[in-house]
């Protein structure tokens, strides 16, 4: 009986010590881990839509609550500001819309005046040769410099030519960009003041 | 249905857990000296891996995720596997003593078999749902057993051949495993 | 036994994974390049030395029946620490080593040394043993990684070393190459061993 008690006590102490140590290490490394993840996984896309800045957009990121999801939980979004001489010139953030094969994730860079700096497709499940062509430079380059009113398919009076044979994909990218640009004025002040 | 069959074929042949993913090598070289031990170990691994894959999946989704303890995955999984092997050992000892004796020391060794923990982790990384986890765990273990048995068959022949002394045993085993692995590469185009 | 012998045995006489045939899984998987070999080796060495220290410190307190379970918890804790640290400070290495970082917990070297040595010896000797084995393992991984990187991509530590018309043996960086390479290396180690 004594043996069993001793075994239980030893195991409990070891597990307890382990649990405490690990949760401490986790807390301590929380910041660097998030930063590393963003830098290695998201930064390439962020860099693709920003230019002419002298700060570290990942380091200067601002996290804001941008509404609620269908479960009533607040949705957090990260905004990466590009600054030049201390003033914010462009803000990069992601947006998404449902395409043909699933959600299309887009990184959008919006200038402080509300026009588009650039657009970059981060991930998608579209058909190769059709919707997948949305990642080709000619398609995303169309968005450069456009204001909200011009972001629409040319068939509907906008300035963006759809990919032939991939109207759903093209419309989805346009929607994602429009959603981002509509969100922009609501968050612009919060992001620039930090 | 087809996606499960594809998963099955790819896990057994194309991405063979041992010959392509490098998981499960330690016991591989130690156990494959004779056909009997190879078959016994293979069966044990199939049983433990399938159970472990499923149980760890449940632990991840009902215990770790809801409480934000994802970072404790490694330690939780290995404890589940160790406990599982312990129970299987006790169960076999009472119910099927013949099998228990046949497996001998290999049963507790399954705890440190990288293939078991590896498969459990892959299930989570690939974000498989319950059914896919079940199929993948089972299929991977079958792939392991298959490679093991094939290897044992070849090695039994080696025992009768003349081999340069420095290469006897493990080095020859490794080179053979390499050739076996190469032949499995031939399955590469099987699944799109 | 002296401190020096305990340390050096891991570097040649009982070097893992060649002499001490343990820890094969990561050896084959991560040695696609020399840098990966070093990274994995050092991570494993860290876990090995730390767990050896703790197991040795607690060797009189852990009842025999629960020793394996205790060792596993101790080793797994250090592995999680390594995982978290790599995610924070060495992210690119973390992405490359992938699933094999948590698999350090089932690396037979770590559990093997805890059971065979640290549980029976003092802390100082256990550190020597752990360091020796760990560094020996790191060296082996680096050598194997260098060979595979050199022949498989013409690089060494990422720098282009071989002449530009060199046609790399891509076979070397894939699964079969790993097995064959390790097998030949082992064979050569045996030859050198018997000649001594």
Protein architecture, described:
The complex is a heterotrimer of chains A (194), B (192) and C (196). Chain A has helices at 2-49, 137-141, 167-193, and strands at residues 62-68, 74-84, 87-98, 103-111, 116-123. Chain A has three helices and five strands, in the order αβββββαα. Chain B has helices spanning 2-14, 25-31, 35-64, 73-95, 97-103, 106-109, 114-125, 130-158, 170-185. In chain B, helix 4 packs across helix 5 (97-103) and helix 7 (114-125) packs antiparallel against helix 8 (130-158). The mean pLDDT of chain B is 82. Helices cover 66% and strands 2% of the residues of chain C. The radius of gyration of chain C is 18 Å and the shape is globular. The mean pLDDT of chain C is 83. Classes of the chains: A alpha+beta (194), B mainly alpha (192), C mainly alpha (196).
Structural class of chain B: mainly alpha
Oligomer: heterotrimer
Tell me the structural class of chain A.
alpha+beta
First-residue to last-residue Cα separation of chain A: 63 Å
Radius of gyration of chain A (CA) equals: 22 Å
Which term fits the overall shape of chain B?
Answer: globular
- Strand percent estimate of chain A: 15-25%
Order of helices and strands of chain A: HEEEEEHH
Q: Give me the number of helical elements of chain B.
A: 9
Secondary structure layout:
The complex is a heterotrimer of chains A (194), B (192) and C (196).
Chain A (H helix, E strand, L loop, with lengths): L1 H48 L12 E7 L5 E11 L2 E12 L4 E9 L4 E8 L13 H5 L25 H27 L1
Antiparallel strand pairs in A: 1-2, 2-3, 3-4, 4-5
Chain B lengths: L1 H13 L10 H7 L3 H30 L8 H23 L1 H7 L2 H4 L4 H12 L4 H29 L11 H16 L7
Helix pairs in contact in B: 1-8, 3-4, 3-7, 3-8, 4-5, 4-7, 7-8, 8-9
Chain C lengths: L2 H6 L15 H7 L3 H24 L9 H23 L1 H7 L10 H11 L4 H31 L1 E2 L2 E2 L14 H21 L1
Antiparallel strand pairs in C: 1-2
Helix pairs in contact in C: 3-4, 3-6, 3-7, 4-6, 6-7
